[in-house]
Specification:
about 250 residues; two-stranded antiparallel sheet; 2 domains; about 25% helix; alpha+beta; ten-stranded mixed β-sheet
């Protein structure tokens, strides 16, 4: 058995070795225990519900780098609600306080190494906190693994459960995953169907070659070259428009 002081009331809290979460029997505070010490853990509430998460995805999918009609043709396979654990470090660096977030769980999901400080006040994650049915993912990375590499002097450190939506979709018979930050509405994706560019390159190369030849022709006949250039401009514009509609 081991013992620590409650960060809230300073009462002794006894726990088994290997325990990560314990409740103070005096003030009922939930305490997170790491080899670096004991502290409260927090959660950021969901500011985006499932319907708005899907809408956020559709707007992201309509971006210019995404495959044409991805926003309309993507078939949503699943939408799941999670609280993902991150460590929040407040440090004084060069007389300025900085807040840094690092994942507390090993994961292959996109974007969870790039989360930002929540856009809302953090709530103490105790027995009274309503997770609203979200799966709470438990940490498996020790806080100590980050401490030696952090700059500056420590001010505060805590475990924060971050609200995310995980959305899986199918497009052109392939499956993709995105993560939606349910605090700030940012979308993270490791990969997504992209808009093809080969046809645009062909149009550009053909147009460049035509203008080059017409420039040479202009040395002999400016009138003929000007007429051909006008036709080339129209042709390039028409071809580009056709490619844009197709892709």
């Amino acid at each position: 058995m081991a013992s620590i002081k409650c960060p809230k009331c300073a009462a002794p809290v006894v726990f088994d070795a290997g325990t990560k979460f314990v409740k103070c029997t005096y003030c009922d505070s939930q305490i997170f225990i790491d080899r670096s010490g004991a502290g409260f853990y927090y959660a950021a509430p969901f500011l985006i519900d499932e319907a708005n998460a899907i809408g956020t995805f559709r707007r992201w999918a309509a971006g210019p780098t995404k495959a044409k009609n991805l926003d309309r043709l993507a078939e949503i396979a699943s939408v799941t609600k999670h609280y993902f654990p991150v460590y929040m470090f407040k440090r004084t660096v060069g007389r300025k306080e900085q807040v840094m977030l690092e994942p507390a769980r090993s994961t292959t999901l996109p974007g969870l190494h790039s989360l930002k400080v929540p856009a809302t006040d953090l709530k103490v994650f105790d027995a009274a906190f309503d997770t609203e049915g979200a799966e709470v993912i438990q940490p498996d990375i020790e806080m100590l693994s980050y401490l030696d590499a952090l700059p500056g002097e420590p001010v505060e450190q805590a475990l924060v459960f971050f609200p995310i939506w995980r959305l899986s979709y199918v497009f052109a018979q392939k499956c993709y995953d995105v993560v939606i930050d349910a605090s700030a509405g940012e979308v993270f994706a490791a990969g997504f169907p992209t808009r093809g560019s080969a046809a645009y390159v062909v149009v550009a190369v053909v147009g460049f070659a035509a203008f080059t030849l017409e420039g040479i022709l202009a040395l002999e006949s400016m009138t003929a070259a000007a007429s051909l250039m006008a036709l080339t401009v129209v042709g390039v514009f028409t071809a580009s428009y056709a490619v844009a509609r197709r892709l």
